[in-house]
Design brief:
The complex is a heterodimer of chains A (385) and B (275).
Chain A: E1 13-18, H1 19-30, E2 34-37, H2 44-53, E3 60-63, H3 67-79, E4 84-88, H4 90-106, E5 110-118, E6 124-128, H5 133-138, E7 148-149, H6 154-171, E8 174-180, H7 181-185, E9 187-192, E10 236-238, H8 252-267, H9 270-273, E11 276-279, E12 286-289, H10 294-307, E13 312-317, E14 319-321, H11 325-332, E15 338-342, H12 347-356, E16 361-364, H13 373-384
Parallel strand pairs in A: 2-3, 2-4, 4-5, 5-8, 7-8, 12-13, 12-15, 15-16
Antiparallel strand pairs in A: 1-9, 5-6, 7-14, 11-13
Helix pairs in contact in A: 1-2, 1-6, 3-4, 10-13
Chain B: H1 31-45, E1 52-56, H2 64-67, E2 71-74, H3 80-90, E3 95-101, H4 102-108, H5 110-119, E4 124-129, H6 164-171, E5 175-180, H7 184-196, E6 201-206, H8 210-214, H9 222-231, E7 233-235, E8 254-261
Parallel strand pairs in B: 1-2, 1-3, 3-4, 4-6, 5-6, 7-8
Antiparallel strand pairs in B: 5-8
The chains are: A alpha/beta (385), B alpha/beta (275).
């Protein structure tokens, strides 16, 4: 039994912590009160931290029998009004694709962090990769438009946990954080602001006592207010295609309207959602696109390239989905040479080429190690030539 | 039909989504009666209707959630129990009932049943067992009796079937009962017990499925199937559950009753006072 000792929800101050723990603290700062998960390397520290912290804060930590159950419980918790999350890695992420889809279809806010390791299958349990980023985009069946962030440091693990919860609540959907083993296990300084400096978004709710029965009628922002279980609404939620009452409707017109709204609600807010970092791109002649831990190597490569007189820059998507293509295209107005460096065999590289409508130089590795700055530098030199 | 049709309110109309009727279930199916038992049990329990949540998986029984005018969740195949656990743990004052089918709960969702029962999570699970996958057209499942014909066991099912009350009891479910959909009073009473009982409760209700199961096995209409179950069943609350498996090949009866009613510590998340 845990005794009620005073422990702050937001650990304001300077810390030296690893990325997984920083993510757990970011989730708490964002208002997370419910965690259901299943241990898996290299995400386990998120669960371990929350198993210690949540009970002391009046929240719920529960370890489920597998990842299928974990994400199902997270969705259930969200319908009871909790800000809910789970943490996993590749094999668990694959299992979660099933109920991620239910979360999209039923518009259930929650956060899923995938601390990526090498795949396919069991792959490299303890070693880094970025090979799940397209799974985040397409891994569940049917059309959907995901939201995913890619942190590059323990500080960003903290910050983007808050962004992820806010986006989940704002747009009523499961939101991904596509971290990687290096960022998860890296220990660095993390600055946690005071509680009043943490900006928090809460879902629009159907007010208790409301007579409105159109629970899936969206507002102008394409997001419907959410009823919460136990407040007397007698609402229905289904993974089937449903009409504005939430009732099943096997009608192609209803289906098309619903699925378009679910994708449009993300697409029309692309500008609000997409965060990028641009490093020395103002006068750049060659730009490397890199994200997550890989951007740290690319950053070093850009610095060395500059020392050697190459006008190099970096474009770092912090939001991976929706892909910040407008910002990339804006940059392409002044630069026409692009390198993409990532710890997979060319997943975001294809996305970059698709939006630029021209080839980029690929620096890829299937995972297990960070691609060293020297390799990125070589690609920058050759592409700039 | 003209406007002269006289319609009287049904006493349980308040708990049904009248705007969703008629339901999709086949003539002769037992689901309507079993759902009525739940609505009457909820009403009689005196519990606050606003605090009830119904969770279903996929299949014919999975549609129950959509007909009940309560907070209702039609989830994914097999995942009703973990979804229900999330609802319950995040809001412990809710009365959460999982209402789903045998294939949903014990094939694709079997693992979740094991762990929810082991933990003694305070939810009620009602399993409507029709011995086959009805909605997909009558295929074999984990409760299909050995020898029974289905659309995927045209030569007779070669597998043994789950003995659900025995399974639930062995896992530590604090309340276990089995009835057929004909035993409406007993089903109602068991559901009332389950609603009032803290912890993980399990009720199996055997239902005719004349289209999915009856046809392949030449049982006849729903009424014939119902008659067969009634004739072949025996109420024995003290039965040895190890022998309560349903084997339609032999002349062994279908054992019915309120089998288990025990006390066990109810699951509480770490740090939450169980008092």
């Amino acid at each position: 039994m845990v005794t009620a000792e005073a422990e702050p929800r937001v650990l304001t101050g300077q810390h030296f912590m690893n990325g997984d723990i920083a993510f757990a603290e970011g989730a708490l700062a964002a208002g997370c009160t419910f965690f259901a998960g299943y241990p898996i390397t290299p995400s386990t520290e998120v669960a371990e931290r929350l198993s210690r912290r949540l009970p002391k804060l009046g929240g719920v930590y529960v370890q489920m029998e597998d990842e299928l159950a974990s994400i199902a419980a997270v969705l259930g918790g969200s319908w009871s009004g909790a800000k809910a999350m789970t943490a996993t890695s590749g094999p668990g992420f694959t299992l979660m694709m099933e109920n991620f889809g239910l979360g999209v279809m039923t518009e259930t806010p929650c956060v899923i962090i995938d601390v990526q390791r090498g795949g396919p299958s069991t792959g490299l349990p303890t070693l880094v990769s970025q090979a799940d980023v397209m799974q985040a985009k397409w891994g569940s069946h049917g059309d959907y438009e995901p939201i995913a962030f890619a942190p590059a440091s323990p500080q960003e693990m903290f910050d983007l946990a808050i962004s992820a919860f806010n986006a989940a609540e704002r747009f009523r959907m499961p939101v991904f954080v596509m971290a990687d083993e290096l960022v998860g296990h890296m220990t660095e300084r993390v600055t946690i602001p005071s509680e009043d400096r943490v900006s928090i978004v809460n879902r629009k709710r159907v007010p208790a006592g409301s007579e409105d029965r159109l629970f899936y009628a969206a507002d102008e922002d394409l997001v419907p207010p959410m009823p919460i279980a136990g407040e007397g609404h007698a609402f229905h939620v289904t993974g089937l295609t449903h009409d504005e009452r939430g009732y099943p409707a096997g009608d192609p017109l209803v289906h098309d309207r619903l699925v378009r709204r679910l994708t449009h609600k993300v697409q029309i807010h692309e500008k609000e959602l997409t965060q990028v970092e641009e490093l020395m791109t103002e006068d750049a002649e060659v730009v490397v696109v890199a994200y997550g831990a890989m951007s740290r190597s690319a950053r070093q490569a850009v610095m060395v390239a500059r020392e050697r007189g190459i006008k190099a820059g970096m474009f770092r998507p912090i939001t991976l989905w929706p892909f910040p293509f407008r910002k990339l295209r804006g940059l392409a107005n002044q630069v026409n040479r692009f390198v993409v460096a990532e710890m997979n065999l060319g997943q975001i590289a294809r996305e970059v080429e698709r939006h630029l409508r021209r080839p980029a130089t690929w620096v890829t590795h299937a995972g297990g190690k960070m691609i060293p700055p020297e390799e990125v530098l070589l690609a920058l030199q050759e592409t700039a030539r | 039909m003209s406007g002269e049709l006289m319609v009287q309110d049904h006493p349980l109309d308040g708990l049904l989504r009248a705007d969703r009727l008629p339901h999709i279930w086949c003539p002769g199916c037992g689901l309507g009666s079993i759902m009525s038992c739940l609505t009457s049990a909820i009403t009689e329990s005196g519990t606050d209707l606003n605090q009830h949540a119904i969770v279903s998986g996929i299949g014919c029984t999975g549609r129950v959630a959509g007909y009940l005018k309560l907070d209702s969740f039609h989830t994914t195949h097999g995942r009703a129990i973990p979804f229900a656990i999330g609802l319950k743990l995040a809001k412990p004052e809710l009365v959460v009932t999982v209402f789903s089918g045998d294939g949903d709960l014990f094939s694709i969702g079997g693992n979740h049943f094991l762990h929810a029962a082991r933990r003694n999570i305070d939810i009620n699970v009602i399993c409507v067992n029709n011995f086959n996958y009805g909605m997909t057209g009558g295929q074999c499942g984990p409760t299909t009796p050995t020898g029974a014909r289905t659309t995927t066991t045209p030569f007779g099912n070669s597998e043994p079937a789950f003995n659900l009350p025995h399974l639930a009891a062995s896992l530590g479910a604090v309340y276990v009962a089995r009835w057929t959909s004909l035993h409406v009073r007993q089903v109602h009473h068991s559901m009332l017990n389950a609603i009032r009982k803290p912890g993980f409760t399990f009720i199996e209700v055997i239902s005719p499925c004349p289209v999915g199961f009856g046809k392949s096995n030449e049982i006849g209409e729903g009424l014939d199937e119902m008659r067969m179950y009634r004739t072949n069943s025996v109420v024995d609350p003290d039965a040895d559950l190890a022998n309560a498996g349903i084997d339609m090949q032999r002349d062994s009866p279908i054992v019915l009753g309120d089998f288990v009613d025990i006390e066990r510590p109810v699951f509480a998340p770490s740090g939450v006072d169980r008092g």
